[in-house]
Write a structure and sequence with these properties.
Length: 157
């Protein structure tokens, strides 16, 4: 059974009250419940972790080695700043999907740059909470592919 770790970055614990015009009105706990329901339906195991601190997210990525088959991460503001999270993803080599509630390409210029976009399998951005579910399904499909096809997808530098 595939094991997937979902990571939420800073300020996502405030979903529901935080800038609803960008992030909607669902709370993080409600999104987590949807992810957990989807995991059960798809027959995979999931763990979910949120932190406001960059180091804690790096620790989780490192500790995922040997424990998880894939990562789904919304690094939130660290998307645009964190070489440490990028390096951690590259270091463990675990297939990762990047998700964002809002479309980061249609907002302020500084949000258009993701420091992890070129080291992940793919990015889902702009579908609200559905971004997590689409990313989750995407990585499950990826894991179901033959190994040689999986490797062909990696773009790590
Ligand atoms: C976000 C987009 C980021 O630019 C922002 O800093 C966030 C949330 C999103 O899910 O749309 O905190 O990652």
């Amino acid at each position: 059974m595939a094991r997937i770790l979902v990571l939420h970055g800073p300020n996502l614990n405030l979903l529901g009250i935080r800038e609803p015009e960008h992030y909607g009105t669902l709370r993080l706990s409600e999104i987590d419940q949807q992810i957990t329901d989807l995991a059960r339906k798809e027959g995979v195991t999931v763990e979910i972790f949120q932190s406001n601190s960059e180091g804690a997210l790096v620790d989780q990525i490192q500790q995922a080695l040997g424990q998880f088959d894939a990562l789904v991460i919304n690094p939130a503001a660290y998307t645009h700043t964190s070489i440490a999270i990028r390096d951690a993803i590259l270091s463990v080599g675990i297939p990762t999907v990047e998700v964002h509630l809002s479309n980061i390409h249609s907002r302020e210029a500084f949000r258009k740059t993701s420091l992890i976009a070129d080291v992940v399998i793919g990015q889902v951005s702009g579908f609200g909470p559905q971004s997590y579910l689409l990313g989750f399904l995407g990585i499950i499909e990826y894991l179901r592919k033959p190994v040689h096809l999986q490797k062909g997808k990696r773009k790590g530098k």
